[in-house]
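Tutorial handout. Part one gives the primary structure; part two gives the three-dimensional structure as tokens.
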Amino acid sequence: MMNGLDEYFDALNRLIAGAPARLSSDAKINKDNVALEAGRGRGSIKKSRPVFYDLIEAIEKAAKEKLDRGILPDGKAKEDLEFYKSEYEKALARELSLVVEVIDLRRQLAKANSASLKLVKSTSE
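Part two.
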């Protein structure tokens, strides 16, 4: 006969395998879902209870591994990622160049307007 902690670990293993009995197959791995999959109530796995330390550590490790597996790009995706990263950086460089040019043109315009105002004042006097 299984004790309660074994039921939690079995529930965790089912979630890791993607074959839970009580939850949907895309359920996140967290303490609440492990508890629900084990047939217990949400919030029954508490950090304050020393009996759950190993279980919580296993849950956090499994959740991190699942997240890491989900975001690792394959070969084609890596190439696309590098291509679009490069294009993004080029676009930022163009944008920055245009901002600098606009600032320079505004300074030139302000200087030209100031000079023409001085010229108008001196001819009207």
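Part three, for discussion. The chain has two domains: 4-71, 73-125. The radius of gyration is 31 Å.
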